[in-house]
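Retro notes
What went well: the complex prediction finally ran end to end.
Inputs used:
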Amino acid sequence: MSRANAYFALPLAALVALVALLIWLKPFDALAPGAPPVEALAFESVRLEPGMFRAKVRVDGSGPVSIAQVQVDGAYRTFTQSPPGPLGRLSSAELAIPYPWVDGETHVIVALTSTGAAFEHSIDVAQTTPDVFGPPARMLLLVGLLLGLAPVAIGLMSFPALRQLGREGTGFILAITVGLLVYLLIDTLGEGLEAAEGVLERFHASTLVWVVAIVTAAGLIGIGRRGDKPPEGLKLAGFIALGIGLHNLGEGLVVGAAFATGETALAAFLVIGFIIHNVTEGFGIAAPLTREQPTLINFISLALLAGLPALLGVFLGAQVVNPLWTAICFGIGAGAIAQVVIEITALLVRQNGTAKLAGTPVLGGVVTGLLVMYVTALLV
Amino acid sequence: MLDWLQRKLSRRQGLKSAGQLGVFGAIGAAAGIVTPASAANAKMAKGHAGHHRGENRTVGRVDHKRNGFDPHAILTDWDRGTLSTDDQGRRVRSFEISAIDKEIEIAPGLFFPAWTYNGRVPGPTLRANEGEHIRVTFRNAGSHPHSIHFHGIHSASMDGITGAGMVNPGDEFTYEFPAKPFGCHLYHCHAIPLKRHIHKGLYGAIIIDPDPELHPEHRDVALSRQLGSEENKHWQEMVMVMNGFDTNFDDENEVYAANSIAFAYMLDPIKIDPDRPVRIYLVNVTEFDPINSFHLHANFFDYFDHGTTLEPTLKTVDTVMLCQAQRGIIEFSFKDYEPGRYMFHAHQSEFAELGWMSFFKVEGS
């Protein structure tokens, strides 16, 4: 063993020894004599079938968690747990609870553990969870298309108009795009952090959203700048489309989940708002292309890249996704948006110099972008 | 537009499942009457056909042996204490009670860190006769100061409150008081904080049987109440302490029951001989909720509030409401009734569905 290797081995061996000692001697057990077990339980998803709730729960705690009884709407109900028995740390089980639930009404499920701790989950508006291949799925397909593809395509149609603008105008348009994207970045992070609240604490999901966002942004910047050339033109438009697409995947998850959790009225309203809102996204994708000669195929590809993930999101969301995955999806979306914000800003600097960044066209564009997004978001 | 799509969708679903109802559904479908309600009914019916509907009860069985008490035994296991005559010529009835910390299973798999009298919740049902002198030796084997506060007539020093019969862990105190008035009474710990000490399980019933010689105008009634008399043997007596358990300490009960175990008398109904009248000594010690109640199906009863009278205070009722610490005696008969299960429960549906739901099983005569 070389000397350098030995230097690394020393702290490693010390760490292993310390951990082994803690596991073997359990010195902290003396600090908590007879301490009551700490328990946590999260409802990751609840599927509604006629006359049946299927709840997927995941547990955490200082020891195995036993689900003793289940209440629905403040009444004890028979249920079956699979797999049965006490659940180890971070393991999950499905609770099948036959119940004559009422369409369109609110139901509350409570899982009681052996220690008497109660964990509650509310189904705000009960409605059958759509089958993957059933007629609701066809409707979800429509929703996904309306939500993702159509508005982006409409936004891209602004391309000929954008071309009429001069150098100053192009800068302004790019600045607007930055504003739009910054808005989406804030929105995406917020959604991710909200989804993270439904996850067991041990997963540190809210931190994970940030970590995933940073890793994604760093990764995409690295990929985008391979060959030391920062993305411009069609390549930049591609990255914007990817960022928006990943953001829309998250939005799709929310809309799909809204359908699945029965907030249909909410979901229907969401869709109309999202469509108007997302037209601005298409506009953002077109912005860096004004000095290029894109083909129709280019436009179709960009629209698909930005729009299709929404379709996937609606589909996945309707199948009641684990909130941890939802949070991770939003983290990825946020990272992808952060990357394009950075790259467009870099492009503006290259085109106009750093000083111009503080100029009226750029600042005005960013503010306009933010305001346009906020105002159209009021429709959501 | 999506609203419209949704409506269309649920309409179609309604029709589809209505079709599975056969003739009845077909009529509805043909008439084109598919209201949201009928769609929901159809859905429920589909559920019924498809799989088990589920029941309003707990899953599994409580291990009464591990608990050390059985809710069916508690119905009738009167603690008579020991009777002796002191040098003043008084008939002295002596009881021994210890406060013990104990984890009890109140619903299958659901454990509650209880404080108990003699290791059970409710504590022993003390039973004495009017005119006797009661002596209760109380030992505190628990981890907090406890007492026994008897609802009865006694001197200030016997009240079981702070400064009068409050017992520290490891200590002992003897409560002495006359057995009066006759009736169905309650005892409980009066340590502070009161709410916690009561709902943790420190309570029980004390029944004072009337002395027939002191009540010549209702001698037969008093005789029927006097445990062990020929008249009394004809009756089917039982005690029910209505209680609740707040397992997560949020000041709301997760479990309600008569005699602690959720649905105990629903899963194993109490057997009733239709030829003998029934008398229930009913006590309400439910914490957090201001009232509890008792409702009997298919029958009516007479009610003696606090049991301190020999004539009913309420006649021919099927529901009584009791505030915290209120108690009384319920008398009824299932004579000439069709054999079968007759329900009784709190008529707060919430309490009933959280465990305080029970059956009498009237046997063939």
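What we learned: Chain B is about 20% helix and 35% strand.
What to try next: split runs per interface for comparison.
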